[in-house]
Amino acid sequence: MKYPVWVMNVVPADSDQDTLGVIYERGFIGTYQDWCEAFSTYPRTYDLLHADGVFGTYQDRCDTTYILLEMDRILRPEGTVIIRDMVEVLTKVRAITDGMRWKSQIMDHESGPFNPEKILVAVKTYRTG
């Protein structure tokens, strides 16, 4: 990697899979977060966000747009979001990220194209006034 990056591992507070212990065991930083609330990041912004099932988890609790706006706030320009979720959820997420002028692409799951879970990779564009 050419430049140092800030990565924060965030586990949904009400997740069925509590992976924060594994994150700490590997020497990474992490926290619990309810994505319907603002995320305390002071004084940092991040280069990479990985959201595994976050939008499917919160789709009945808060608006997807609010979660993406919060991600936009804490993500550095040209930062990347990797979102793993069901294809129906990712289609909605991609429509919003495209409206935010992020460059995004939906890719197949590593087990193949017939898996209903897909991966969305979105890059926040660098905009100037």
UniProtKB/TrEMBL annotation:
Its EC number is 2.1.1.-. GO terms for cellular component: endosome; membrane; trans-Golgi network. InterPro entries: Put_SAM_MeTrfase, SAM-dependent_MTases_sf. It is an enzyme of class 2 (transferase). It holds the Pfam family Methyltransf_29. This is Methyltransferase. Belongs to the methyltransferase superfamily. It is a single-pass membrane protein; Single-pass type II membrane protein. SUPFAM superfamilies: S-adenosyl-L-methionine-dependent methyltransferases. GO terms for molecular function: methyltransferase activity. Its main location: membrane. Keywords: Glycoprotein, Methyltransferase, Signal-anchor, Transferase, Transmembrane. The keyword Plastid does not apply. It is found in: Endomembrane system; Membrane. It comes from Cocos nucifera (Coconut palm). One of its GO terms (biological process) is methylation.
